[in-house]
Design goal:
Elements: H1 2-8, E1 15-18, H2 24-28, E2 33-36, H3 38-48, H4 53-63, H5 67-80, H6 84-91, H7 114-122, H8 130-153, H9 161-166, H10 175-180, H11 185-191, H12 209-215
Parallel strand pairs: 1-2
Length: 269
């Protein structure tokens, strides 16, 4: 985490979403908004509480964009689940609801599956040596960047087409505009009173075509040949690794799931 902090620098509007609430992020990024994966929170809650009220109202409470609606749904759970408030204050006191997210950070994700997605993306490359692994990951990133750069260069207008299609999606409360940066149906009903409504002034700049083009306008440098690597005196001789004999069968590539994870189709946020 310290190396990550030195690599990205002090970003002003930064949100860190942890999965197991290990609090390492608060030490390296004390200025960042500390969030917590709500899916992991619910898995921990199932181990400590029983009943049907928390399963019915906790997910809507986490997706609520306004404080009033969040409190209304959360109070329904607290009334039927003794000890829940003390447990949340003690073990899960980070931000896990959209109603408390910063309005400056236009990211309203409440789940964190970054590690799972990354392992699935590189699971076919894990058997490679470290330098070959780094070059293979760089190659995959170059292909992905080039694909998205080509898509962004072909877009016209100021608003992303995907956002235009989402403007009529159902949302809850006027706070949706402040947190996500996109107008809710209540605002759309007023905007659409014009014969040819202009949506651009009501959508945040983070969802513009220019921002997408700027995100993939950079260049990923190549990895030099081993003969061009700098020679460093580490003070000792590195011997080749002597491992145990590999057992029969194919080498395992899939990641071993943690105790809080479960298999099945992922749900949309």
């Amino acid at each position: 985490m310290e190396q990550l902090g030195s690599a990205i620098g002090p970003i002003p509007n930064l949100a860190i979403c942890t999965d197991a609430c290990k609090r390492l992020e608060s030490v390296v990024f004390p200025w960042a908004e500390q969030r917590e994966c709500f899916r992991h929170l619910m898995e921990n809650m199932k181990r400590n509480f029983t009943g049907t009220e928390y399963a019915k109202y906790m997910w809507p409470a986490s997706r609520a964009y306004t404080i009033d609606k969040h409190r209304y749904l959360l109070n329904k759970v607290l009334q039927n689940t003794p000890g829940l408030q003390e447990w949340l204050d003690k073990d899960h006191n980070l931000l896990w609801t959209r109603a408390k997210f910063s309005e400056e950070i236009k990211c309203d994700y409440i789940n964190n599956n970054l590690v799972e997605a990354w392992n699935s993306w590189i699971k076919e490359l894990k058997y490679l040596l470290l330098d070959y692994l780094a070059d293979a990951v760089r190659e995959k990133m170059v292909i992905l960047f080039e694909k998205r750069r080509r898509i962004s260069s072909a877009l016209d207008g100021n608003i992303l087409p995907a956002v235009v299609h989402q403007l009529n999606a159902q949302s809850k409360g006027l706070g949706h505009l402040r947190v996500s940066g996109k107008p809710c149906p209540h605002a759309l009903a007023v905007i659409a009173t014009d014969r040819q409504p202009n949506m651009e002034p009501f959508v945040h700049n983070a969802f513009s075509v220019q921002k997408l083009q700027a995100a993939y306008a950079g260049c990923i440098p190549n990895i030099t040949n081993k003969g061009q690597w700098p020679t460093v005196d580490i003070g000792f001789k590195v011997l080749p690794h002597v491992g145990k004999k590999r057992p029969l069968g194919r080498q395992r590539k899939n990641r071993i799931l943690g105790p809080l994870e479960r298999s099945g189709k992922a749900t949309r946020q």
